[in-house]
Amino acid sequence: MHWLREDPGITAIMETRNRNQTGWHTDPYGLHQDRWLSDGNPTRLIRDGRNEDYDEPPAMTPLFEPVPVHRGQPRAEGEDLIRADDAQREAPFADEQATRAASDVVSGLGGAD
Fold first, then answer.
1. How far apart are the first and last CA of the chain?
2. What pLDDT, in 10s, does the model give residues 58-78?
3. For residue 37, what are the contacts with CB-CB under 8 A and spacing of at least 6?
4. CB 92 within 8 A of CB 69
5. What is the pTM of this model?
6. Residue 33 in contact with residue 48, Cβ under 8 Å?
């Protein structure tokens, strides 16, 4: 796979079996975490973590082959990791359960006679 520049800084054409890819991909220039591709062409829409912004594709040959980033796929800080004990962990209190537990504690502090 390789990239061709018809006019540096304006268009980029990727010759690949998946040239019609559209969506978030890893940034082929290595400047940002992700870059939006439209029909296989890098656009100015970029993403770093949860922050989206605009940055025109540079007038250079891409350094990396872009890899699709799937929707809902966490990208930072180990959010995509599953703990070995997740199945054994208790679910957090629901509001009603928390209120009942707090009430039980308070009523138990009524004092001893």
1. 83
2. 999 999 999 999 866 555 556
3. 21, 22, 23, 24, 25, 43, 66
4. no
5. 0.50
6. yes
Which amino acid does the sequence have at 51? N
Number of residues that make up the chain: 113
Average pLDDT, the chain: 76
DSSP state of 96: H
Residue type, 27: D
| Ranges of each domain in the chain | 2-82
Give the residue carrying structure tokens 């973590």: 49
Region class of 85: left (phi > 0), else alpha (psi between -120 and 50), else beta: alpha
The gap from C-alpha 61 to its chain's centroid, in whole angstroms, comes to 25
Bridge partners (DSSP) listed for residue 23: 37
